[in-house]
Fold this sequence. Notes:
Blueprint: H1 3-16, E1 19-21, E2 29-38, E3 41-51, H2 57-81
Antiparallel strand pairs: 1-2, 2-3
Amino acid sequence: TDVETLREELAEVRDRGVAFDVGEAIAGLRSVAAPVLCEGRVEGAIAVVGPKNRLKGEKFRQEIPDLVSGAANEVELRLQYGDP
């Protein structure tokens, strides 16, 4: 990967709010991850990882990203405002 391709991919991840791994890191595994932000800084991430035969289609592209983003947002709110 060249630097420009990496920058383009990172811009897409920022726009989407989630990152997808479709086997680039480990063949046969897929993942969806969302950052946990606090005051503009990345404090961590929430991710779901599984075999490609279970993470596919609409579940992989929409359902899991929505769940991961929601969980990351919940952690962000607790970091910002505390656990009531």
